Amino acid sequence: MAVDLSMPVLVVDDYKTMVRIIRNLLKQIGFEDVDEAADGSEALTKLKERAYGLVISDWNMEPMTGYELLKQVRDDANLNALPFIMITAEAKSENVIAAKKAGVNNYIVKPFNAQTLKSKIETVFDA
Looking at the predicted structure, is the pLDDT value of residue 22 above 70? Predict the structure, then answer.
């Protein structure tokens, strides 16, 4: 299945610079419809208001982490099939295992470029 570049993407990160970087990378790939949330609770609110095609979330955020957001998304019957990519600065294997158990679709370690992001997104939609 090809990636639908017109689908809305939600980027969740409490670090504004990172949101800007991810937004720019998504634009390079061809995504036009990109929303942002500063933390997990804001993201949950937005996810209930709009049908997103993909969530890209940072792991380390306050007060709700990306991991907690992922668990809430997977526990919500309306959202549990939503493709979810987690971004983290540390490639700790226990984090990767925990995220996979919680139902993450893919995982990106910072720093990354447009090509990495594109291939991770393609993997999610080819699965």
Answer: yes
SS3 call for 114: helix
The per-residue pLDDT for range 51-105, each reduced to its tens digit, is: 999 999 999 998 999 999 999 999 999 999 999 999 988 778 888 899 999 999 9
Q: How far is CA 122 from CA 56, 89, 106, 114, 119, in A?
A: 13, 21, 10, 12, 5
Residue 109 and residue 86: Cα distance in Å, rounded? 9
Q: What is the CATH number of the domain that holds 108?
A: 3.40.50.2300
The number of domains in the chain is 1
Residue 127 lies in a domain: no
- List the domain range (segments joined by +) for residue 36: 9-114
pTM for the predicted model, two decimal places: 0.95
> Looking up tokens 């979330």, which residue turns up?
57
Is residue 50 a part of any domain in this protein? yes
